[in-house]
Amino acid sequence: MLGLVKEILIILRYSLMRKLKSKWLFSEEFYRNGVELLPKKIDRISTTKLRTFIDTAIEDKGTNLWTDDLGSDVRIYGAEGIFPEIEMLLPIDEMRKKGESYLSQKLPYHFVLAAKLQHKVGNLGSGGGWHRDSPFTPQFKFIAYLSDVSFQNGPFEYIPKSHTSLNKLNSKFNLDKMRYTAEEVNKQWGDKSTVVIGGEGSILIADTKGLHRGSPIQNGERYACTVYFFSKEKNMQSFSNFLQRA
Ligand SMILES: [Fe+2]
């Protein structure tokens, strides 16, 4: 019951505010589906620099790395703390404006998660399987593809429209549920997932309230930067142990 009240408040707060806006900085496709790929947003010189930074930082013993149990997903949270140039190589302000338009609020805080994802036997893919980043509040994130993303090397997978309150209310799951098994997703949404493949330099934007995962990596590797935006500095605090210190 409490979940239903929260979901209704979200409809009132976000959907109506967006509808009342005369100018959107995000597309109709993104609004409807919760995910969109923007091709060729970053040039090759920048993606090469970013991949080199990731490889170098992974080798450096001083980097505050996070890895999954298999070593398939290696992450550098708050990469700007040790590589300030990253702020110039990614179109952070352009994406921030899209996010602010979508969420109808200022997003003055952010950090960059730079990652290398590699095939290891038994890997679950980035994010550890199907989940929502938040059960009720819409989220805005962008992922910069620093290498080509194919069906094999663990592409982002999303259930279109699963960010909407209507889609949640039509499912049989509790409204506050955040993690889902592959069987649960298959039963409820069948083959409705979208696998977002794309070329090096593309940018994926997503409302990660919607159901998503990094597909398990069948072979190869990929490099990516994900930018997390926040309206309040205190909301970044839950990541403080993972961030880099300059
Ligand atoms: Fe996620």
- For the record, the CATH architecture stands as Sandwich
Strand order of the largest sheet: 1-8-5-10-4-3-2
Q: What's the CATH class, please?
A: Mainly Beta
Number of β-strand runs: 10
Q: Which molecules are bound in this entry?
A: fe (ii) ion
Give me the Rg, rounded: 18 Å
Q: Supply the helix-strand structural class.
A: alpha+beta
Form type: globular
Overall tally of structural domains: 1
Poorly predicted runs are none
Task: Indicate the proportion of strand residues.
Answer: 15-25%
How many strands, what sense, and barrel or not for the largest sheet? 7 strands, antiparallel
Determine the N-to-C terminus distance.
46 Å
**CATH fold group:** Jelly Rolls
Which superfamily, in CATH terms, is the homologous superfamily? q2cbj1_9rhob like domain
What does this entry look like structurally?
- The structure is a single chain.
- The chain is α+β, with helices and mostly antiparallel strands and 246 residues long.
- 28% of the residues lie in helices and 20% in strands.
- The chain has helices at 2-20, 28-33, 44-59, 86-89, 92-103, 165-169, 182-189, and strands at residues 35-38, 65-67, 73-77, 109-118, 141-145, 156-158, 194-196, 203-206, 212-214, 221-230.
- The protein starts with a helix and ends in a 16-residue tail after the last strand.
- It binds fe (ii) ion (FE2).
- Residues 127, 131, 133, 208, 212 line the site of fe (ii) ion (FE2).
